[in-house]
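Severity: low
Component: inverse-folding endpoint
Summary: output formatting inconsistent between runs
Steps to reproduce: submit the following structure tokens with default settings.
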């Protein structure tokens, strides 16, 4: 969890780490995804622009700030909340068609109508052209018809390059290459599915056989075992065992596969394999081959379009308090969230606005901006790191922060476009606050580099108040306005760039 720290001039990078005094000890159980999802969360796993890098640090490991969420059992923001993930919907990022999970599984998580370019992996578009065809009744006459083909607007690849026939309709029915081992693979899949079903039935039968037969009769009616303990009648079957047996005739339809045969001699290479000139423009790259592992195309003439991968919308839920942490809307065209309790939407944002020339053992003044992402007032205090702070490990400069408390105005989307709006009056110190605009404040900090070479890194604490908007509703007479407000402390790490000689 971190306020996203991004500098405007691209000279360095800014990192921020969130923490709380009541930090838990469990690790986050949700997998990070390299899975392509569209939670709308801001993932800071890499360079953003011009060498700018923003990430969060937790236990000396970089983690995205989307991992920090508001848990009802823990005060403030935490990353240790055990979470469960649920896929809400599958959809195609090109045509925005959504489908249930069962249908997506049958289609191998790919869209049936959209394709990716096999050369540059961009989305293919359908283009129309006019062709002349002879009439079947009168060959001497011709008629103009429209034909559709696939084309890439980036690398100029078309479906005609690999000999795919044009279609008379704009969607569907495109020719797909036949794999020579498709029947063999399907037969192996059916065989192992049948084998797994038999093993499951045997395990369930052994579990029933190991059950004790001296269970007291007093519990028979309570647990519905009265009919099982009675003497079975002739011609009747036990219902529990009926579902564990194979279907009728399944034993007679047992699938038999032929084992693979090892050959001693392989087909030799052509005589001109090592002597013929190689045209690199016709040879596929490693990435193009790995995208089609079933065919492994060697030449560009063997590249066929691939069906586009589906994306998912997922929701996150805390396993302990059973509250939703993030839940997107079901419609693929919407980027809004029904619930979005991630830290970047509630913690003040830190940005580096201007950096002076930094020199060894010379004090310089750096201008930072603090932005309030919530609609209510936020009180912020900058604190220096204490000696022996376990988070203060990368600092290479001494920092002097303003001792006064800063007040950030609430976020107002309408005020950003209202030029006639009167600015709010705050008791700001001109030596500390450079400017104030809406919910943004410019603050001066003083930095003194302590090393003669390398990048300048400063660390300090950002303490702010947080109003728990998800607190349970209580009667007015029992409500305590101060009980819902808690003070949180975040560890901020700023990389200001290299020293000047």
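Observed output (run 2 of 3):
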């Amino acid at each position: 969890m971190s306020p996203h720290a991004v500098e405007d001039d691209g000279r360095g990078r800014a990192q921020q780490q969130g923490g709380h005094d009541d930090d838990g000890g469990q690790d986050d159980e949700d997998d990070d995804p390299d899975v392509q999802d569209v939670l709308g969360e801001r993932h800071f796993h890499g360079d953003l622009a011009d060498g700018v890098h923003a990430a969060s640090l937790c236990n000396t490991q970089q983690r995205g700030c989307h991992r920090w969420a508001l848990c009802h059992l823990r005060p403030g923001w935490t990353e240790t909340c055990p979470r469960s993930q649920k896929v809400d919907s599958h959809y195609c990022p090109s045509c925005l068609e959504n489908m249930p999970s069962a249908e997506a599984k049958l289609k191998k998580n790919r869209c049936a109508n959209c394709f990716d370019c096999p050369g540059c992996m961009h989305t293919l578009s359908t283009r129309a052209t006019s062709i002349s065809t002879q009439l079947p009744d009168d060959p001497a006459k011709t008629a103009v018809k429209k034909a559709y083909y696939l084309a890439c607007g980036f690398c100029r690849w078309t479906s005609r390059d690999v000999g795919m026939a044009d279609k008379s309709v704009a969607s569907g029915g495109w020719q797909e290459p036949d794999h020579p081992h498709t029947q063999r693979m399907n037969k192996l899949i059916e065989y192992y599915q049948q084998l797994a079903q038999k093993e499951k039935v045997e395990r369930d039968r052994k579990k029933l056989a190991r059950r004790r037969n001296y269970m007291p009769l007093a519990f028979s009616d309570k647990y519905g075992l009265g009919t099982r303990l009675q003497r079975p009648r002739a011609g009747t079957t036990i219902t529990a065992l009926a579902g564990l047996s194979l279907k009728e005739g399944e034993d007679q339809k047992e699938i038999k596969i032929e084992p693979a045969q090892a050959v001693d001699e392989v087909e030799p290479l052509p005589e001109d394999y090592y002597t013929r000139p190689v045209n690199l423009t016709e040879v596929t790259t490693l990435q193009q081959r790995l995208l089609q592992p079933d065919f492994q195309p060697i030449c560009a003439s063997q590249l066929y379009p691939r069906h586009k991968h589906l994306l998912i919308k997922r929701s996150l839920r805390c396993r302990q308090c059973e509250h939703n942490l993030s839940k997107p809307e079901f419609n693929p065209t919407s980027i809004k969230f029904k619930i979005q309790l991630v830290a970047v939407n509630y913690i003040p944002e830190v940005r580096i606005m201007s950096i002076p020339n930094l020199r060894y053992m010379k004090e310089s003044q750096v201008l930072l901006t603090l932005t309030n992402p919530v609609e209510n007032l936020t009180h912020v205090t900058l604190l220096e790191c204490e000696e022996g702070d376990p988070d203060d490990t990368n600092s290479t400069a001494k920092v002097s922060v303003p001792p006064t408390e800063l007040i950030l105005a609430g976020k107002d989307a309408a005020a950003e476009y209202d030029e006639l709006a009167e600015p709010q009056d705050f008791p700001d110190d001109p030596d500390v606050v450079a400017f104030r605009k809406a919910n943004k404040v410019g603050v001066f900090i003083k930095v003194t580099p302590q090393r003669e070479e390398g990048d300048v890194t400063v660390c300090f604490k950002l303490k702010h108040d947080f109003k728990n908007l998800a607190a349970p509703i209580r009667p007015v007479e029992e409500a305590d306005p101060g009980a819902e407000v808690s003070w949180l402390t975040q560890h901020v790490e700023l990389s200001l760039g290299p020293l000047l000689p």
